[in-house]
Amino acid sequence: MPAQPVVVVLHDGRLPPATAMEPVTAHAELRPTEEAGLADALRGADVLFAYDFLSTAVPAAWHAAGSLQWIHVAAAGVDTVMSPEVRESDVVVTNSRGIFEGPIAEYVLAQVLALAKDLPGSLRLQREHRWEHRESERVAGTRALVVGTGPIGRAIARLLRAAGMEVHGGGRHLRLDDPDFTTVTDAAGLTAELGRADWVVAAAPLTEATRGMFDAAAFAAMAPHARFVNVGRGELVRTADLVTALRDGTIAGAALDVVDPEPLPAGHALWDLPNVVLTPHSSGDVHGWRSALTELFADNVLRWVEGRPLRNVVDKSLGYVPSTGSRP
C-alpha cells in the first residue's frame, strides 16, 4: 500500500458527509469527481469509492485505472461496476452490506400492509371526498416468497414472519430446513413456488443469472390475486411483461422501488396503472443513511491501511458477498 494512497470519490454533486470522511482524509489524498472526470481522476489512484452507486461510468473509465487496487460501492448491489474487465482483474470489490437490511425490510412490510389494506385506494377516495366503506385483507396467514436469500432477503423474511406470514425463499441452492425461510427453492422449483405465493418479493442481486428472471412466464405462474414487490434491481424484471401482467389481471398489483429504465420516464405506463405503487429507489434511504455508508467505507479504509481484512468482500464470480452462514 502506498504511503499516501489516492482515493477517488465518485459522486453525483453530493459529496459524502465531511465528518464521516475525516478518518479517510487523515490517511489518504482525496480526488472527488463526477462522472465526466472519472477517467482523469483514476489515473494513479489506488482506491475508488463509488459513492454515486447508480453511476454506470466505471466501465468506460476503466482504461485509466492501471494502479487501482480496490473499489468500494456505497450500495448492496455492485452490478454498476462489475464489468468483465473488473471481474477479471485483481482489483478487490467491497459493498455496503449491513446498512440497508432493516430499512428495506420495513419498506417491504409497509408495502404489503398498504396493498392488503388498500391504502392507495383510501387516499384516492379521500381526494375525491368520498366516504365509502370497504373491507380489507389480513396479511397473517398469507404466503410470501422472497427471491434472494442474502442479508436483505433474510431481514425481509424475519419481519414478514413477525407479521404472521408464512415465508419461503428462492435462491441458488435447495434447502429444506432454513431458519428464516423454512424452505428455499432453487431455479428448478421456482415456477411451482411462484404459483403458491400470495406475495412475491424480488430481493436478489442483479447478475447474469438473475437479469430478466421475472418475465411473462414468471408472472403467468403467479396466482391472479398475488402482488409483486421489487426492492432488488429493475433489471430483474422484463418491464413490458410486468405492464402486460398488471393490465390484463395476470397478477393483482405491484409495489416497485426499482424499475427499468430508471428513472422512470414521463409517460411510461407504470405511472398510471391503478394497481401499482412506485417509489424512487429509496426503500433503504432512511435518515442518516449517507453517513452510515460513509462510516462503513471509512472503517474499511482504516482496515486497509493497517493491513487487516476488509469487510464485505464481493466474490466477483458471483457478483455479491457470499454468506458465511444461513443467518449472516
UniProtKB/TrEMBL annotation:
Residues 33-314 form the D-isomer specific 2-hydroxyacid dehydrogenase catalytic domain. GO terms for molecular function: NAD binding; oxidoreductase activity, acting on the CH-OH group of donors, NAD or NADP as acceptor. The keyword Oxidoreductase applies. Residues 109-282 form the D-isomer specific 2-hydroxyacid dehydrogenase NAD-binding domain. Keywords: NAD, Oxidoreductase. SUPFAM superfamilies: Formate/glycerate dehydrogenase catalytic domain-like, NAD(P)-binding Rossmann-fold domains. CDD domains: 2-Hacid_dh_1. Belongs to the D-isomer specific 2-hydroxyacid dehydrogenase family. PANTHER family: 2-HACID_DH_C DOMAIN-CONTAINING PROTEIN, D-ISOMER SPECIFIC 2-HYDROXYACID DEHYDROGENASE NAD-BINDING DOMAIN-CONTAINING PROTEIN. This is Phosphoglycerate dehydrogenase. The lineage of its organism: Bacteria, Bacillati, Actinomycetota, Actinomycetes, Micrococcales.
